[in-house]
């Protein structure tokens, strides 16, 4: 299990990089609008990496984000929103394209990563 410290003074890029260090074929993006399980987030609602966490959320709670490969994608996204007050979406790399994992929200993060490894060279 990997733990990432989350606080208002972090740029979104820092959090994203820490997540991708654990899962190189996955990434998270931050959004202004929440989504339901199995639902995609719109590109126009995506926040820029250079923003700070304090600038995009109303719930200013610091803490640690536990990243466990056995956790379902949907659970990870929901817990991030509930604990830190900002919607996130997990993306998986397929070749040179990043796809939202909407159809595979029930997969664990490790399963998403394994699939990303398989699809990295297609």
What would you note in describing this structure?
- This protein has helices at residues 12-22, 53-56, 73-84, 109-119, and strands at 2-6, 26-30, 63-67, 88-94, 97-100.
- The chain has 122 residues and is of the alpha+beta class.
- It has one domain (2-119).
- Strands 2-4-5 form a three-stranded antiparallel beta sheet. A two-stranded antiparallel ribbon has the order 1-3.
- A hairpin with a 2-residue loop joins strand 4 (88-94) and strand 5.
- The longest helix has 12 residues, at 73-84.
- The protein is globular and about 40 Å long.
Architecture blueprint of SSEs:
Blueprint: E1 2-6, H1 12-22, E2 26-30, H2 53-56, E3 63-67, H3 73-84, E4 88-94, E5 97-100, H4 109-119
Antiparallel strand pairs: 1-3, 2-4, 4-5
Keywords:
alpha+beta; two-stranded antiparallel ribbon
Number of helices: 4
- Record the strand order, biggest sheet: 2-4-5
- Number of β-strand runs: 5
Average pLDDT score: 91
In the residues, how many domains can be counted?
A: 1
The largest sheet, given as strand count, sense and whether it forms a barrel, is:
3 strands, antiparallel
Overall shape: globular
- Assess the beta-strand content as a share of residues: 15-25%
* Content-based structural category: alpha+beta
Distance between the termini: 29 Å
Order of helices and strands: EHEHEHEEH
- Radius of gyration, in Å, reads 13 Å
Question: Runs with pLDDT <50, length 5+?
Answer: none
**Helix content estimate:** 25-40%
By oligomeric state, this entry counts as: single chain
């Amino acid at each position: 299990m990997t733990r990432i410290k989350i606080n208002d003074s972090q740029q979104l890029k820092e959090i994203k990089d820490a997540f991708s260090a654990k899962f190189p074929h996955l990434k998270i993006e931050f959004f202004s609008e929440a989504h339901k399980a199995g639902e995609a987030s719109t590109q126009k609602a995506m926040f820029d990496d250079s923003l700070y966490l304090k600038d995009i959320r109303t719930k200013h709670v610091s803490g640690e984000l536990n990243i466990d490969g056995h956790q379902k994608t949907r659970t990870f996204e929901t817990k991030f929103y509930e604990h830190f007050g900002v919607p996130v979406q997990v993306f998986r790399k397929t070749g040179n394209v990043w796809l939202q994992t909407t159809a595979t929200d029930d997969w664990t993060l490790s399963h998403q990563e394994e699939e990303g490894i398989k699809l990295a060279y297609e």
